[in-house]
Amino acid sequence: MSQTLPSVSVVIVSWQRPVTLRRCLLALQQQDHPALEIRLVADGASSEQACNAMRAAGCTAGVVANPGNNISLARNMGLGVAQGEVVAFIDDDAVPEPTWASRLARAFLDPQVVAATGYTLGRNGISLQWAAAETDAAGQDHPLPITSGISLHAGTLLRAVKPVGTNCAFRRSSLLAAGGFDPAYRFYLEDADIGLRLAPQGLTAIVPEARVHHAFAASARRRQDRVPTSLYEIAASIAVFLRRHAPEMLELDTLPAIEAQRDRVARLRAENRLSPPEAEALLDTLAAGWDDGMARPLGPLPPIAAVPSEFLRLAGTGPKPGRVIAGRPWQKPRLLRQAAAAVAAGEIVTVFCLAPSPRAHRVQFTDQGFWLQTGGLFGWSTRQGPRLRLTRFSARVAEETARVAPFRPVR
Fold first, then answer.
1. CA distance 85 to 240
2. Whose CB has fewer CB within 10 Å in the chain, the N or C terminal residue?
3. What residue ranges in 242-386 does DSSP mark as E strands?
4. Distance between CA atoms of residues 372 and 394, nearest Å
5. What is the pTM of this model?
6. What percent of the chain has pLDDT over 90?
7. Domains along the chain with CATH numbers
8. What's the Cα-to-Cα distance from 285 to each of 209, 220, 221, 254, 277, rounded to whole Å?
């Protein structure tokens, strides 16, 4: 007999990104987990636009005003009002595969599990941006060779699995008791910190099949091309992390985490993606942020009090049939019309639009609510193996369908 999955609250922190937020919410409405609620911590304009679209589809979300300058504080606000047994977190510029929430929730059927994390794909929708890794007390990541299936990991205060912020979940009672995310981390390393702090309380599950696509949208801290406009909060968080977990390292003449940021600026300057004045200004923000992080008050984190309220079950979630639609670029208008109609009928739709070329593939979740994979019939998708290979159209569609089938329904 199959076990009932624990209910899930999805917390999204958003700030002035209504377009990507709406796309994230649209993908959440297609989740196959039937007991799901959304707790949105957002600025007024973004939440109003996104929630209007949800209401038009007969859905609802709990909304909390975002103070705007502290992702840890905002996540804790969402945590405080969440009613699910499990609380999952995703960024507003990310979209989950339809099986994401249920895959994470399944890990918590084991009572020893206090946290879980999945795999995150980059901007092309295929290559991994974040896989399995442990973080040590210096804030350095160490990859773990895990490719499939749920695996459970014990950790310590000195080394533990990193629950990547845009694709992670926690047992709500455990996260509340631990004080949630540390508000001293306004941005960056807050996920590594909670991974270390929760490690003594239980196991962390790594769930490679729980997939999120992360676009890295522009923000106050980075341009659209991912070039940073400020390193202030990154440096401040590095200082806080070392004060919390490895204070002995503060006596070193050079710190690996800070040197990595200096190297990042030098690399961007060498690639002509930063001008000399821009590079100098970035290094100034690095120094100023470090000073701030060293001065921020740190103390014990009291438990977060839960706010009793109704579980806002998201309408329309649960298992749905899948459909694959395939064709060539000159057929694209018809393919997209078919896809939109299938989505309206309640199906999870994947469209393959393949040209007779060796162009590399890309995957995106569209504003119309379907998955669109484009590229060349002879090009690579997984960035492994030969760049060019001969194949038939039907064989390539079958191959790509099999590749995505573990993450979304295809029939």
1. 30
2. N
3. 322-327, 348-355, 362-365, 371-376
4. 17
5. 0.94
6. 82
7. 8-214 (3.90.550.10), 232-295 (no CATH), 322-404 (no CATH)
8. 38, 13, 11, 18, 13
